[in-house]
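Exercise 7b. C-alpha coordinates:
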Protein backbone atom coordinates (compact mmCIF):
# COMPACT_ATOMS: atom_id res chain seq x y z
CA UNK A 1 0.00 0.00 0.00
CA UNK A 2 2.86 2.35 0.77
CA UNK A 3 4.38 1.86 -2.68
CA UNK A 4 1.06 2.45 -4.45
CA UNK A 5 0.42 5.48 -2.26
CA UNK A 6 3.81 6.89 -3.19
CA UNK A 7 2.97 6.56 -6.89
CA UNK A 8 -0.14 8.64 -6.36
CA UNK A 9 1.62 11.31 -4.30
CA UNK A 10 4.57 11.89 -6.68
CA UNK A 11 2.73 14.29 -9.07
CA UNK A 12 1.49 16.43 -6.20
CA UNK A 13 4.98 16.66 -4.71
CA UNK A 14 6.46 17.49 -8.12
CA UNK A 15 3.89 20.21 -8.75
CA UNK A 16 3.77 21.73 -5.29
CA UNK A 17 6.19 24.56 -6.11
CA UNK A 18 5.25 25.17 -9.74
CA UNK A 19 1.47 24.89 -9.92
CA UNK A 20 -0.38 26.81 -7.24
CA UNK A 21 -3.80 25.91 -8.63
CA UNK A 22 -3.50 22.15 -7.98
CA UNK A 23 -4.34 20.58 -4.65
CA UNK A 24 -3.68 17.09 -3.33
CA UNK A 25 -7.08 15.65 -4.21
CA UNK A 26 -7.01 17.00 -7.76
CA UNK A 27 -3.52 15.58 -8.35
CA UNK A 28 -4.61 12.28 -6.80
CA UNK A 29 -7.71 12.11 -9.01
CA UNK A 30 -5.79 13.02 -12.17
CA UNK A 31 -3.06 10.45 -11.62
CA UNK A 32 -5.72 7.82 -10.81
CA UNK A 33 -7.48 8.47 -14.11
CA UNK A 34 -4.12 8.57 -15.87
CA UNK A 35 -3.11 5.16 -14.56
CA UNK A 36 -6.49 3.63 -15.43
CA UNK A 37 -6.63 5.10 -18.93
CA UNK A 38 -3.02 4.27 -19.74
CA UNK A 39 -3.74 0.66 -18.83
CA UNK A 40 -6.56 0.52 -21.36
CA UNK A 41 -4.60 1.97 -24.29
CA UNK A 42 -2.65 -0.88 -25.92
CA UNK A 43 1.07 -0.21 -26.35
CA UNK A 44 4.25 -2.12 -25.58
CA UNK A 45 5.11 -1.71 -21.89
CA UNK A 46 2.51 1.04 -21.55
CA UNK A 47 5.14 3.77 -21.52
CA UNK A 48 3.96 5.84 -24.48
CA UNK A 49 0.32 5.60 -23.50
CA UNK A 50 1.05 6.72 -19.94
CA UNK A 51 2.99 9.75 -21.15
CA UNK A 52 0.21 10.70 -23.57
CA UNK A 53 -2.56 10.38 -21.00
CA UNK A 54 -0.51 12.13 -18.28
CA UNK A 55 0.06 15.14 -20.54
CA UNK A 56 -3.56 15.03 -21.74
CA UNK A 57 -4.87 15.14 -18.15
CA UNK A 58 -2.43 17.59 -16.55
CA UNK A 59 -1.71 20.02 -19.42
CA UNK A 60 -5.05 21.92 -19.37
CA UNK A 61 -4.73 22.54 -15.63
CA UNK A 62 -1.04 23.35 -15.13
CA UNK A 63 0.28 24.16 -18.61
CA UNK A 64 2.57 22.37 -21.02
CA UNK A 65 5.94 23.15 -19.43
CA UNK A 66 4.89 22.17 -15.92
CA UNK A 67 3.16 19.03 -17.19
CA UNK A 68 6.22 17.84 -19.11
CA UNK A 69 8.63 18.67 -16.28
CA UNK A 70 6.43 16.90 -13.73
CA UNK A 71 6.17 13.91 -16.09
CA UNK A 72 9.97 13.70 -16.25
CA UNK A 73 10.19 13.95 -12.46
CA UNK A 74 7.48 11.29 -12.12
CA UNK A 75 9.40 8.96 -14.43
CA UNK A 76 12.61 9.59 -12.49
CA UNK A 77 10.91 9.00 -9.15
CA UNK A 78 9.09 5.86 -10.27
CA UNK A 79 11.92 4.19 -12.21
CA UNK A 80 15.34 5.51 -11.21
CA UNK A 81 14.92 6.01 -7.45
CA UNK A 82 13.67 2.46 -6.75
CA UNK A 83 16.53 1.11 -8.86
CA UNK A 84 19.09 3.14 -6.89
CA UNK A 85 17.61 2.11 -3.55
CA UNK A 86 17.62 -1.55 -4.58
CA UNK A 87 21.20 -1.25 -5.81
CA UNK A 88 22.30 0.23 -2.46
CA UNK A 89 20.61 -2.61 -0.57
CA UNK A 90 22.27 -5.12 -2.91
CA UNK A 91 25.69 -3.55 -2.30
CA UNK A 92 25.15 -3.60 1.46
CA UNK A 93 24.17 -7.28 1.41
CA UNK A 94 27.01 -8.16 -0.95
CA UNK A 95 29.51 -6.38 1.31
CA UNK A 96 28.22 -8.39 4.25
CA UNK A 97 28.68 -11.67 2.32
CA UNK A 98 32.21 -10.72 1.26
CA UNK A 99 33.14 -9.63 4.80
CA UNK A 100 31.81 -12.92 6.23
CA UNK A 101 33.80 -14.86 3.61
CA UNK A 102 37.01 -13.02 4.50
CA UNK A 103 36.47 -13.67 8.21
CA UNK A 104 36.02 -17.41 7.53
CA UNK A 105 39.28 -17.54 5.60
CA UNK A 106 41.24 -15.69 8.30
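Sequence design result:
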Amino acid sequence: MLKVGAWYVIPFVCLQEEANNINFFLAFALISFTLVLSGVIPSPAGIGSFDFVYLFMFQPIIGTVDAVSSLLLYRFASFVLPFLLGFLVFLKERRKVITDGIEEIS
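Instructor comment: The helical segments are 2-15, 24-40, 47-62, 64-105. The CA atoms of residues 98 and 104 lie 10 Å apart.
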